User: Which sequence fits this backbone?
């Protein structure tokens, strides 16, 4: 009895042409990270359970895949390994373990799969690629680094041609310091107020105002807070509004100065003004972010949610070392981003990884074709030698279905004359070329291989 071939739900398996697009995106991200001086790191797919789950909450632990060998199960041993559910916890363990061997600030990128026990539904993956960058400091980390990460993402997303996008950023210290200046200095109450503000898009400003007043904020202060969060002005206008506030607090002042420095640095880095927006509404963020926070939205598809997010944290590895290791990081969920773009037909085809396929028209010219393929590979081209016998139409259908751009045909007449037939499969044109002129002709038809 045959078993029906099928993939597990929550995974992404692509056909070759789609995989080439995915790989192009992954390579573009990697090059973008390296361009700014980040170095690669990889960690094991599984971690020791007690290390991995140190910082996880109850809901996170429900999504963790535990790893156990058949032998361990038979012997009644409990699982002591678990698949990583993000790249941040492994990074914390890595930095704490190798602290003495690393140079700080430590600029690392990590592009690997992570695993979560998500419910099976569109856009939710159990196995997916995360593309993370983080800058980790020892004892302190200058706030100027916070501007580098959006600059990197802008270059990457523009190269990927994802359409119009905006990186929204803020600093949690601004709203938290503002609340403290308004007399709400209890951390739990601050968290509750920000949680109600999070409902702004769903329930409207009037209802949010009512809820945060019930938590102890005066109507006057609630109005100030909501007007700031809903401010649609440019960066300078929002900064002017913040400068004009009467209720000042040390935390607020620190956050404001960090944002001003970031705005200046973004401009010095040449980031186009329209690519970033100071948006105080995202300051609620995740609780472990202590300063700058980022969210990236595709302008024409806000329903995608944030396709790249992150922020500043005070201490990455406090569970694993007594050293203070502050940092700032961003993450692109590549699998989810690819899936959304693919579903909305927003992705452009990329050149086939095979540039040239060589078809000997008769079996006696196989060795001739092999030597030509070797010479072209030495010249920097990617080449496939096709061995299967058959009519030319069959061979060309194969090349067309595989998406190869160029075919070289070799027959008896060509061998006798020292030529080959070069066929542009997209344009459906062909030309006979002398061997001495072949590299020049291929250079005109294809992107000439670089060093």
Assistant:
């Amino acid at each position: 009895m045959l078993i029906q071939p099928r993939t597990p739900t929550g995974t992404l398996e692509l056909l070759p042409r789609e995989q080439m697009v995915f790989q192009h995106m992954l390579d573009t991200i990697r090059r973008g990270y390296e361009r700014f001086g980040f170095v690669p790191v990889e960690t094991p797919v599984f971690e020791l359970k007690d290390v991995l789950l140190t910082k996880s909450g109850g809901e996170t632990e429900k999504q963790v895949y535990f790893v156990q060998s058949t032998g361990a199960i038979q012997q009644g041993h409990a699982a002591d390994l678990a698949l990583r559910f993000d790249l941040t916890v492994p990074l914390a363990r890595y930095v704490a373990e190798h602290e003495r061997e690393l140079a700080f600030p430590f600029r690392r990128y990590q592009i690997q799969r992570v695993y979560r026990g998500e419910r099976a539904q569109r856009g939710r993956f159990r196995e997916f690629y995360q593309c993370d960058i983080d800058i980790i400091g020892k004892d302190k980390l200058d706030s100027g680094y916070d501007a580098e990460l959006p600059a990197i993402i802008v270059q990457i997303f523009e190269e990927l041609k994802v359409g119009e996008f905006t990186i929204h950023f803020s600093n949690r210290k601004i709203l938290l310091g503002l609340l403290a200046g308004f007399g709400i200095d209890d951390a739990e109450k601050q968290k509750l107020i920000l949680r109600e503000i999070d409902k702004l898009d769903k329930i409207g400003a009037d209802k949010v105002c009512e809820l945060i007043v019930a938590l102890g904020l005066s109507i006057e202060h609630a109005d100030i807070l909501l007007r700031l969060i809903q401010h649609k002005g440019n960066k300078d206008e929002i900064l002017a509004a913040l400068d004009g506030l009467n209720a000042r607090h040390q935390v607020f002042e620190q956050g404001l100065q960090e944002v001003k420095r970031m705005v200046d640095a973004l401009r010095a880095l040449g980031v186009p003004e329209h690519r970033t927006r100071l948006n105080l509404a995202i300051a609620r963020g995740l609780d472990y972010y202590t300063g700058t926070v980022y969210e990236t939205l595709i302008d024409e598809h806000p329903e995608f949610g944030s396709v790249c997010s992150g922020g500043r944290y005070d201490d990455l590895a406090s569970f694993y070392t007594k050293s203070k290791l502050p940092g700032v990081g961003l993450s692109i969920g590549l699998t989810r981003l690819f899936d959304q773009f693919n579903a909305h037909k927003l992705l452009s085809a990329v050149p086939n990884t095979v540039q040239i396929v060589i078809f000997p028209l008769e079996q006696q010219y196989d060795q001739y074709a092999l030597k030509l393929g070797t010479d072209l590979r030495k010249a920097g081209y990617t080449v496939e030698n096709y061995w299967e016998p058959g009519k030319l139409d069959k061979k060309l259908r194969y090349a067309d279905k595989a998406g190869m751009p160029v075919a070289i045909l070799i027959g008896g007449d060509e061998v006798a004359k020292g030529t080959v037939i070069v066929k542009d499969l997209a344009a459906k044109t062909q030309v006979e070329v002398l061997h001495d002129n072949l590299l020049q002709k291929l250079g005109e038809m294809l992107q000439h291989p670089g060093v």
Summary: The domain at 33-343 is CATH 3.30.930.10 (BirA Bifunctional Protein; domain 2). The chain has a mean pLDDT of 90.
